[in-house]
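Lab notebook, design round three. We kept the backbone fixed and only want residue identities now. Task for the bench partner: fill in a sequence for the structure below.
Input structure tokens:
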């Protein structure tokens, strides 16, 4: 009886983890720039992998201690890695799609009032 419930929980975790992984991959393909793609891949790294890891812990003799350590490690390193990649992309000048006024130092008054030639100092064209 308990084994059946654990099997159903593992199957549900596999389905949810696979769903988040598929959504993350579709987001990576469909989203327009590196910043939004990082958001999509973050969902794979956090929700997809964590649910698949929970399923592995339930279904295999891995043990909850090791599983929780791996979940904690994934949660901490995933956020730090995404932030480092986004910061590097920002400093390299990779443009955002649909940039809004006020982003990246753009003066809302416009470049004419400031006398600047390029209102986006970090936005270099490749």
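Proposed sequence:
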């Amino acid at each position: 009886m308990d084994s059946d419930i654990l099997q159903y929980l593992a199957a549900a975790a596999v389905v949810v983890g696979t769903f988040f992984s598929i959504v993350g991959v579709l987001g990576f393909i469909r989203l327009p720039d590196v910043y939004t793609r990082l958001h999509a891949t973050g969902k794979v790294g956090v929700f997809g992998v964590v649910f698949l890891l929970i399923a592995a812990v339930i279904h295999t003799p891995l043990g909850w201690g090791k599983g929780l350590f791996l979940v904690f490690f994934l949660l901490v390193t995933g956020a730090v890695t995404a932030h480092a990649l986004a910061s590097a992309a920002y400093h390299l000048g990779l443009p955002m799609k649909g940039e809004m006024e006020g982003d990246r130092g753009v003066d809302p008054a416009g470049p004419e009032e400031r006398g600047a030639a390029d209102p986006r100092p970090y936005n270099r064209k490749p």
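Keep this in mind before ordering anything: The two ends are 61 Å apart (CA to CA).
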